[in-house]
Amino acid sequence: MEKKVEDLLRLIPDEGFIKITRDGDAKSLSRKQKTALIRKGNELFNQGKYELAKRIFITTGYSDGLLRMGDLYYKRQQILEAFRMYCLAPSKRKVDIMIESMACIVKNWLSEEKKG
Predict the structure, then answer these.
(1) Residue 92's pLDDT is what?
(2) CATH architecture observed for domain 5-115
């Protein structure tokens, strides 16, 4: 018997995920359940309920949702969380851009340290 979306949402822990892997929990969901959760996640995202939407996108491994979350965190200057979402999506292009930027920052810190 198919679980209702509300029942599936209750299975997502409030405290978050200890170990997060792409499509980790999605394998245990039927196609119908996954589709229902993704729709709910999109609805929540559009309502501004980002944390719950993020939990659904992570659970279902929904790349487009994870990219939107990454873009949101990036705009909010929450760079490490944006990077995490892009890695989970996965978006090689966005991850590579962020790694290059982070490497430049570290390089600048090291050159300032040598000067000081």
Answers:
(1) 92
(2) Alpha Horseshoe (1.25)
- Residue 24's SS3 state is coil
Question: What is the DSSP secondary structure assignment for residue 89, as one 8-state letter?
Answer: T
CA–chain centroid gap for 113, Å, is: 34
**Please, which residues have CB within 8 angstroms of residue 61's CB and are 6 or more apart in sequence?**
22, 23, 24, 25, 26, 88
Residue 20 has φ and ψ, to the nearest 5°, of -115, 125
Q: Could you tell me the pTM of the whole model?
A: 0.72
User: How far apart are the C-alpha atoms of 51 and 97, rounded to whole Å?
Assistant: 25
Domain boundaries, the chain: 5-115
